[in-house]
Amino acid sequence: MQLTDKIYYVGVNDRTKHRFEGQWHLPQGVSYNSYLVVDEKVALIDTVEADFFLEFLDKLHAVLGDRKIDYLVINHMEPDHSGSISLLRKYYPDVKLVGNKKTFGMVEGFYGEPTADDVEVTDGSELSLGSTTLQFHLVPMLHWPETMVSYLKEDKVLFSGDVFGCFGALNGNIVDRDMDTESYLPEMERYYAAILGKYGAQVLAGLKKLAPLEIEMICSTHGPVWTEHISTIIELYRRLGAGETEEGIVVAYGSMYGNTQRVAEAIAEGAAEAGVRKIVVHNLSVSQPSYVLRDIFRYKGLAIGGPTYNGELFPVVNDMMERLCGRKVSNHVLAAFGGFSWAGQAVKILEKYNERMKMEMVDAPVEWKQGANPDVLESARELGRRLAAAVKA
């Protein structure tokens, strides 16, 4: 699939994997994007996961025929992009790897020692392909330490690696102008929350560093090639990196026998009574964590709770709190709730977690013993109203 007179898309779709990185749900699959720049020299930008190498090889041959690949540019060493390096070198033994110092440390660890002909680049380095030039920019911790992006100067194309990637396989069309992108933008938010959510400061630094580049096409390693929506996705990343939210509330809970669920529903009712229109309720025993994280990144308010379980916080709630503590989510308003049968710990543990997250906490969490009686439910509605007031403020 030809993107410009010199750039070809040679990526593949994965519609069989259930979970990305072994944990993030993939109901619509995912793409592994790779690109060929065909000039006097041929540069391949990233590879694909090794399971799809034969399909990948067919695509390379369809574009190149018997022509060799001169350079393999490695923007990111995660195996869904670097996994075909060893196989590629068997079919293209003269290919030179292009990466930075940290890249080659990982190449050795994953695939064996680099060769003397490989090309080590630094920030701002350039590589001539003939009439076009690749320029390299290091963007560490987006989201691995070796991560870089490659910019084809003459065509104003940014090969961005995982940055601006999203979940979802590509359905025939590759470029945003040729497709309905409505389903991909929420999946970009979910991808960010799951994969890059810890690195907000680095995201903002990377955007600032790349701002001087004139970009007419963004070719990431997952999802569509972006042309018409470039300003939209850059703004989406800026907003997420800065921790900016919109008016809305996520109510997330775990419940064994229904009492915590009733309290969660009452909190949502109270928030609705107070005029909040966007309210999302997640049962953490059912909702896949990446969707919960996406919604928490999106909305200002979070009410979270669960029962005390063996003297600890209910496991699925504890898991979500650990995930939140590992991400940039401090710019939120938090309401806590939790029940117990004989020894209350859930609310105390939630408050302890917030010492790490540093959210603004709504006063008077709801804690109850045994059943969620009418007084408890009214307290929950009031907590929802107070959370709504803080969110709307």
From TrEMBL:
Pfam families: Flavodoxin_1, ODP. This is Flavodoxin-like domain-containing protein. In the N-terminal section; belongs to the zinc metallo-hydrolase group 3 family. The lineage of its organism: Bacteria, Pseudomonadati, Bacteroidota, Bacteroidia, Bacteroidales. One of its GO terms (molecular function) is oxidoreductase activity. InterPro entries: Flavodoxin/NO_synth, Flavoprotein-like_sf, Metallo-B-lactamas, ODP_dom, RibonucZ/Hydroxyglut_hydro, Rubredoxin-O_OxRdtase. Residues 249-388 form the Flavodoxin-like domain. It comes from Alloprevotella rava F0323. PROSITE patterns: FLAVODOXIN_LIKE.
